[in-house]
Specification:
The N and C termini lie far apart (about 85 Å). About 10% of the residues are buried. The protein folds into two domains: about 120 residues, SH3 type barrels; about 35 residues. Strands 4-3-2-1-5-6 form a six-stranded antiparallel β-sheet, with no helix packed on it. The chain is α+β, with helices and mostly antiparallel strands.
Amino acid sequence: MDNSFTKKIEEGFYKKRPDVKVGDTVKLHLKIKEGSKERVQIFEGVVISLKGSGLNRNIVVRKISYGVGVEKIVPLHTPVLQKIEVVKRGTVGRSKLYYLRDRVGRKALKTGATEDIYLTDEVEVPVTGEEIAVEEEVTEVEESTEEKVEEAVEEKEES
């Protein structure tokens, strides 16, 4: 099969994701459907492996919940995964951290020297003009609420 043909089809489905590595502590914002309602649930844990390539790239995240190890395998470019936040970056000597499954307690989340870092797939750079406009709107709202408060005080004094 022609690889360029497959790449052209897949281009539209790629999401902009931060650079996630094995050993990182990440927060996965997952969309959960319950009946007719939809909500976002956060799953925070350590990345123990990355598998696949391209659209088939999967990430395995492990956390300890009430003393029980829980793992989630999530495709990296799925629409169910709303956002990824990289909270900490850990240094590891292996590409798969399956040995963390045998560990208990705080040792189960130990991944070398960790450094605090914050990466996300939301990139919003405010334009200078927009920022000023937002501040003006806020001051207008504050002035109108102050006027309403003054009117209410005057009405109380009259009665």
